[in-house]
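re: ur question from earlier - yeah i can do the single chain one, its not a big deal. heres the input i used so u can compare w yours
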Amino acid sequence: MKKSDELLKYVEWDVKNWSVALDFWQKNSAKKLFESRVLEIGGGFGGLSLWFAKQGAHVVCSDFQGVSQIAVELHRAHNVTHLIEYETIHALDIPYTEEFDIVVFKSVIGVLDDYESQKKAVGGEMYRALKKNGELFFAENLVGSPAHMFLRKKMIRWGNEWRYIKIKEMKDFLAPFSETKLYVHGFAGTFGRNERQRNLLGFGDQLIFERIVPKNWKYIISGVAVK
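and the output i got, formated as tokens:
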């Protein structure tokens, strides 16, 4: 199996850009993933739960609508179901306190339709669910460039409903954490209409656009935050 095919299972689309978060988390975390206790928020299709379980972590895979059968079958196919539990959890009502070594989410908080709700989810609920010195891993959609904003409204059915965040807002959400490491990345990959096009444009991001595009025009913010 090609590496890109494996990564697609974890991040689901625009692999060249979103998979950057996986490397960033590992390089900037003090945690050993093996036997760590992990909560995935918004893990409906189970990709990040699979990534953690394959490294020996014990994972609660959760989604506010319940985890999909697709996720269960994915985990079963990789023989990691003994490491994964499934729960229905909303980001604004996480029923845990100081329980997890790591909480992780990818492309999740935009479904919350206002700043205060997003702040509560990240700096309140997720923060509370972490043990002391626990870490939040995340990768989230940014507002991006004017082109991103225009095409989302025209081409994505939820483009007018999703609340895309600004870099400063994410910093605000992370204020309770003692330490944060952030990386803003990705520009052209998201414009592809299929994964082959996104891969080609992702090469352009890595070779050209990451160097010349202003930070506030990039569309992903990844990070590690320590409680």
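The first strand starts at residue 37 and ends at 41. not sure if urs matches, ping me
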